[in-house]
Amino acid sequence: MPEHRSSVDIAASPDTVFAYLVTPEGLTAWMGQHAVLDPRPGGEFTADIAGSPIRGRFLEVDEPHRVVVSWGVAGSPDLPPGASTVTFTLTPIATGTRVQVHHAGLPEPRVAGHRAGWAHFLPRLAVAASGGDPGADVWRPLAPAD
Question: Which residues form the Activator of Hsp90 ATPase homologue 1/2-like C-terminal domain (predicted)?
């Protein structure tokens, strides 16, 4: 299955950035309009992001180093809830934290849309986690190819 990898450097500590991955207030500051999160292995990962109902589970939570969630779209035949996996790895760097994202298990028609999504959302994470306001989010994903 295709995958996507990207990263962003953030002027904040790993502890600060970690909260933006595991709390509803943190996640919706940079991605999504609504979230229900239970950050423990097997816990709920529910977020409404850019018009898509993302559903999955927390698979791994290693504060403040790593978060792994299953990821899919409610009602999607090609990317159902939990069908793919997103891994966030947080590494301390001299200027704060490097966040690496690895999104694995994507169906080929969904790769371009998720690549565009991560390119949009990771800079918003950098702004929010470093104390800024990324503003209202009006981005919408590319439609998957038929």
Answer: 12-127
- Taking the whole predicted model, whether its pTM rises above 0.90 is answered as yes
Q: What are the domain boundaries of the chain?
A: 3-129
Instruction: Report, at the CATH architecture level, how domain 3-129 is classified.
Output: 2-Layer Sandwich (3.30)
Query: Under a CB-based contact definition with an 8 Å cutoff, are residues 137 and 127 in contact?
Result: no
Cα–Cα distance for residue pair 21/125, rounded to 1 Å: 9
Mind listing the pLDDT tens digit of every residue in the chain (146 residues)? 689 999 999 999 999 999 999 999 999 999 999 999 999 999 999 999 998 999 999 999 999 999 999 999 999 999 999 999 999 999 999 999 999 999 999 999 999 999 999 999 999 999 999 999 999 998 887 665 43
C-beta separation of 101 from 132 below 8 A: no
User: Based on the number of CB atoms within 10 Å of its own CB, is 24 exposed (0-12), middle (13-18) or buried (19 or more)?
Assistant: middle
